[in-house]
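Record 1 of the preview.
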Amino acid sequence: MPNIISKDVSFKTHAELKNIIGQDLINDDNIAVVELVKNGIDAEASNINIKFDTENSMIVVEDNGRGMSDSDIENKWLNIAYSEKRQPSKRILAGNKGVGRFACDRLGRKLNLITRMKNSNLIKLTVDWKDFENKENSSTFIQSIKFKMQSISDIELLSEFNVKIPESGTILIISELRQVWDRSKLQILRRNLERFVNPIDVFDKKSVKINLEAEQELESDSKAKPHEVVNGPLENKIFSKLKFNTTYIKSNVSGDGKTISTELFHEGERIYRIVENNIKFSILKNIEITLHYMNPYKKSYFRRNSGIPLVEFGSVFLFINGYRVSPYGDRDDDWLQLNSRKSQGTARYLGNREVLGIININDTDNSFRIVSNREGVARNESYFQLTKKPSGFFLQTLMRLEKFVVDGLGWDSVPPEIRQRLQADIIPGDDGMPESEVYLESESKKIRRISLEVLDIVGATAESTIEFEISPKVLNAIASEKEAMVKDLLTKFDAFDGSVGQDVKIALSKIKEEFERQRVELEKTRIKVDIKNKHISKLESVTKVLSEENTELKNKIETQQSEVLFSRLSAGTDQEQLLLLHHQSKIKATNVKGYLDKAISALNSGLDNDKIFELLEKALINTRKIIAVTSFATKANFKMKTESITSDIATFIQEYLENVANESSAQNLKVKVERKFKEPFEMRFKPIDIAIVFDNLASNSTRAKAKNISVLLEKGNENELVISVSDDGPGLDKRIMPPSDIFERGVTTTSGSGLGLYHVKKTLESLNGTIEVDSTKLKGFNIKIRIMK
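->
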């Protein structure tokens, strides 16, 4: 017969429990360090120092808080899962699970806890976590593992650990570290600690100073950028830096949970403020949400300031009672389902890559319970009212921001070429980028759209609205709109009578008065217009005829303007012009004779070759001018080639190549000219200079046995003309190094004098221009000319 059992039993705690709530539960080194910082803050410390001594494989966490007595250590710190932080307190505390002490186990195999209360002795507790491990006997209870707790002196503390403790506080010395803390790991820890610090100082932790110290990294820090430094005090400045230049929304549920206040800001100005009755979120209170829209410019600024891309920093972070709750907001943690929602409407919704924000909860009622693994909060009713899709408080706030960004700003779209430069980490003012932000739409156009859709963008209802204020800029934009549109908008505003702010009421009243005045004036004007319309109709037929004649005349003028530079002249029809041609040729020929006479005299006198070469060069360039002058004889207005003119130089180049050069210097080449812009490029120049440049280039191509030459005219910017000249010859001789030497005097690879390209370079310099070999093309001879106005 089986034994009948009836007795009281209880749970037993095996030594392996340490691993379950230590290394296994706190499964991230950064979270473990944060837990130790929380303990110092909750001990009312004003200073917390975290020191990494990699040489001795130690982490030392020091605080100047209340400290502990031997009774506190035995009955509270060693009492697993006990936490006095759960007890009623006026002060908001960082943790309340009673498992943070096992963060020490996560970080290292040994712990020395040194603590002291004010006016009390130092106490040391030594824990070797290995004593709990590999205990297979079922009777090895956690209570059977004994530690040494003893009093020590300040001298003994200094001698053993080389540390000092203030009149009250706690020092945790964690040794035999389980991980190697290299520079990269320390930088990640610093970023996590900075994100743990609440950026909005609305909580009662006041001036807790947290410092990170790693002596082995000081030298690297001295050469690092500010966001790459390891050592120093921790600060979370990301959100304070964002507010002045982002579009952002701030919405909060009041302390009593009765009202919700929402403000939206753009370019540093508040667009609207609305206070509403809290009807939908009955158990939420003391919650504030701040969301920033990160357009391409703001993402680029963020990367420049923080050193990391926005996507790596995170998205929307959760803070409860002043401290961050992990992993909410971490990269790839889509806890609010922003990315999954965006995939359903890319053009309508914001995702994690466009939103950066924080949710702050001052949870005095313990409505948001942090789960025991320190990663997240319990999915209770408070959590669902905050996050529920699509009707939670967060989504309501986000949708208002989305409405403004999508329907109001049109996504603040930037030109594609600007977007590419921003993605390359180039911001306004850098490397030729415009000093100010450039968008596809003007600010006035966006404000106009916002003003006409303001009530839809806000999403307000007259029934729930307590107060409603709108930016004067938006109201001014309303006043400048058409009467029908404004009447419709004013009718909608009338529904909010009694809830809109006094300033808004005054502004709306003025708008109504202005439109009544305009209506009366408009009626008077319409009568006058009717009379004038009768006269206008009689004139329309006459105007139509004149318009047609004017168009025909305009076309003739444009044709003649082109022909005035290059028009064929009948032989003997312009005696004066031919006389001028003869006169100019005679002058140039006289100059040539003079330079040649001097060269011969210099040769007979035995002068150096450089002087003789210089005289021959001057003779040659005057000879080229004679050739250029005569090439105009039957093609162009001769007066224009010897004087400086102000005209469209691009048109002149095109007409010269197509009407003159192809029958003279380029007669053995097939010339192709392409122009990429229509507007004139007007500047002052001498036509003969253009002739010398392109005659020389064509002559070189002919000597190189090229068959084709092409000229491309483009605008580099408003003041720069870029001319690309290419032929299909053998190209530049590889022996000429560097390629720019081809423009030096006497350098040639043909039967020429070696002065042609040198003259081209000098002539272009007189035109405020430059010339260079285009080495990006592999075939033929290719150059690029730039001429500045």
